[in-house]
Here is the input.
Amino acid sequence: MAAAPPQGTPQPLYTGKAKSLFPHDDRHFRMVFRDDLTAFDAVKKATMKGKGYYNCQIAATLLPMVERAGVPTHFVRLLSDTEHLVKKVKIVKLEVLCRNLAAGSIVKNYGFVEGTEFKKPIVMFDLKEDKFHDPLLNEDIAEALGVATAAEFAKMREMTLKVNAVLRGYLEPRGLLLPDFKLEFGYDLEGGLILADEISADTCRFWDAKTRRSIDKDVFRFDKGDVLATYKEAYERITGKTAG
Ligand code: ADP
Ligand code: MG
Here is the structure.
């Protein structure tokens, strides 16, 4: 039999690649942003002290902004420098991608030239399943898998486009472009569809508007420079605060 954990050390309910979920109360989880970084389905891994803090603070800035604009989210408040209090949700097993400029897999898989600006944002849905490398979904496959219905697709698409507009409106005056980002949705205890997870330098591409330099996880993915300094810069430019 496995040894019982030491008293006072709550065990996470779920340990993902970059965050851990702990029980909090009947209606909430404690979401801890760890210092872990992964890329390419966790083939590439690293740990960097401070990364969790920067992402936690970026998400704590952007999620309430989205909420104020009318898209309900799971974010309640910060519990500490690296923890969010979030509403419990049943996660919809897909990732919604929104693209404004061509970067990443849309360049690799469809041949768009990197940096091409799309006339209107492209919304895509991937199955959230690392072992299948998050394959692209359409309404029929999602419905056959029992992941989401066409009506739910439409609702997530609408909410995602709203998030896109809010984020772009905030980032533009800060000299940042938003080539793309990934969202996760879930159903809260009342059965409402809300935005969950995070909006951070792990889940968004941020480019400096003038130089188009990456200020996000691509610096880790593609060894483009000092990773921690990049998360710090994203934090400072997005929150308007100076890191200590
Ligand atoms: P992953 O390796 O799956 O990306 P993360 O490291 O991002 O995991 O950890 C967060 C996990 O918690 C994700 O699987 C995400 O779907 C899930 N999650 C996010 N917000 C909530 C929530 N409010 N309630 C339940 N699960 C959540
Ligand atoms: Mg994740």
Remarks:
- The helical segments are 51-68, 105-110, 139-145, 150-171, 218-221, 227-239.
- The longest strand covers residues 176-187.
- The two ends are 45 Å apart (CA to CA).
- The chain is about 30% helix and 30% strand.
